[in-house]
Task: structure prediction
Amino acid sequence: MWALISDVHGNLRALERALAYAREEGARSVAFLGDALGGVETDEACCRVLMRECDRAVFGNREVRVRLAFPEDVRRWIRSLPATAQIGDVLLCHSSPTSRYPHDITAGDALSFRRGLSYFDLFPYVSRGTAVPAATAAPGPACRAVVHGHTHLQAVWRVPSGATDPVPEVKPESEKSCPWAVKLELDGETTVVGLGSVGKGKNGRVEFGLYYPADRRIHLVSLPSG
Result:
């Protein structure tokens, strides 16, 4: 099982809480989907936890900076982060596969690449109107799910093959559902999943995902603050 972590924003306490919960649930691997940094004094500590714990990691908009006042090993790790990664047929990205960044570009090259492009070209948001393009922009037919952060919202869309019009957002059976179990379908559609935010979740909650590859399920977890 994988822990899927995004948008930490320097919140070390929330990061440690999410990882502890995931380990207790049986997670053996960790994927990080960008935005470790929040411009706070605990940024370096968050990076070091992620450096130690992560088996997959991608960069977010916070990692693309002119100067990063960290020790060289932390800067080297940040510069090496790619724009996307995969767990089997699940694509991991910070914002959306529709980003103008090449899927294999690293944070170290992203700053020079971005010149002349707008923030929203490089870090587009996934919403009801853009979920279909996000699903169809995944690199190749082998990707059957797209998992992202960036929006700070836990959200799910199921996009049928060939869809062109916006699709409705999938809702949990109950507002009290926690974790919210999302089944990833194998045939005929791509599932787009927003993880929310570990460090800046809705109403201060700690939000992340647990991915069960054998069962094709992602559980969206939302822990109360405190």
